[in-house]
Write a structure and sequence with these properties.
about 70 residues; alpha+beta; Ribbon-helix-helix fold; 3 helices
Length: about 70
C-alpha cells in the first residue's frame, strides 16, 4: 500500500508517496548511516534528476545492490 508522508526539504514542506516497505527500508538506511530520515531524504533531493519518490526508491535499490542492506 502506498502511503503519503509530509517531509521538509530545502526549507519547504512537501509530500512523498511510497510503499510502506520503502519507508521502512529508508528508516533502516538512515539508522545504519547514523543520520535522520529527514537528512537522508534531503541528500536525495539535492542530487536527484527527477521525481523525489523515484529517487528514494533508487536509493533503496542501490543500498540492496551494494550489500549495505541485507534481505531478511
Amino acid at each position: 500500500m502506498i502511503t503519503k508522508h509530509s517531509v521538509k526539504v530545502a526549507g519547504h514542506a512537501t509530500s512523498v508517496s511510497l510503499e510502506e516497505e520503502f519507508w521502512e527500508a529508508l528508516r533502516q538506511i538512515a539508522a545504519k548511516r547514523g543520520t535522520s530520515l529527514a537528512s537522508l531524504i534531503a541528500s536525495v533531493d539535492e542530487r536527484r534528476a527527477g521525481n523525489l519518490s523515484s529517487g528514494l526508491r533508487l536509493l533503496v535499490l542501490e543500498a540492496y545492490r551494494s550489500g549495505e542492506m541485507c534481505r531478511g
